[in-house]
Amino acid sequence: MRRLGILTSGGDCPGVNAVIRGAVLAGEIVHGCGFMGFRDGWRGLLEQDVVPLPRHSVRGISRRGGTILGTSRTNPLSHGGVDRVRAGFRRNGLDGLIAIGGEGTLAAARELCSQGLQVIGVPKTIDNDLGATDYTFGFDSAVQTATEAIDRLRTTGESHHRCMVAEVMGRNAGWIALHAGMAAGAHAILIPEHPVTLDQVAAWVMSAHGRGRAPLVVVAEAFTPTGQAAPYAPRGLDTFGRPRLGGIGRLLEEELQLMTGLETRATVLGHIQRGGEPTAYDRVLATRLGIAAVDAAANGRWGTMVALRGTDIVPVGLEEALGTLKLVPEERYLEAAVLFG
Ligand code: F6P
Q1: Cα angle vertex 92, ends 86, 97, to 5°?
Q2: Same domain, yes or no, for 236 and 247?
Q3: Of 28, 110, 124, 267, which one has the greatest count of Cβ atoms within 10 A?
Q4: What residues make up the domain containing 214?
């Protein structure tokens, strides 16, 4: 194995740079193998936008947020497909490719492998919803950022005797809401895996209010209350007379205020929780995944994704990796719900 390519695709995620550094250092030091980095995900591979990644180019990057390579949501299979990727491999003299990405990237990697190209996947999403791995790097950082933000919402909520609603990310699963909500001591956590009625949410809010607390609601962006149709129709006009846009956080702001009579404010954390420096946990997990991806390549384990199982990093088939979305189990939700009062 003389040369590998590496790319980062899909939404960025704290810890991506630590994967790149782990892979490049393990490649050079352990396996005597060089790296080429493609800019902006698959786009760089399709358009020959590529940079060599010698050891000094990854110095000190593991603590930096974002990705030094840039990212995009370009799908290689819908842009000229496998032949262009194959040409990219040939032009750059690659023995194989390490693709760091979420579901879309891993699905593309599986398709490329089925057509004879040599790819190893590294799972990446702050959502923590990939089935074959116990945790994804970036999740811990997102939870840390969300928890800090929710702690801040609590103090302003308490000062104004308001109900505060924090909407966090999680396209399909409620992991960030569950962990940040538990860490911040939310009075209600709302996740798509466990739909509840708005009446139930209002009851939790009033129960907290009745105990003299400023109610704190943490909601995952994908949550839909029972009996409501998603996506939510914009309701009312904002202060500029425009239709009020927004997701579930905005809907809760309006409905809870009406239902409880408490002044209610919603904050959508959005991309704040994806940016910034990775936590120490994420740096270590991401570095280990980078090293393991190169080991897997050296051992010819193409068509696998490196995954965290317990405390070990192991290669699992991309087929298995893509099989299931990891949703919050009911018992994990009920554990948290004990605290809502
Ligand atoms: O999958 C990661 C994620 O951050 C989701 O939580 C969120 O729904 C989505 O990406 C946002 O994507 P974009 O950055 O394209 O708006």
Answers
A1: 65
A2: yes
A3: 124
A4: 140-274
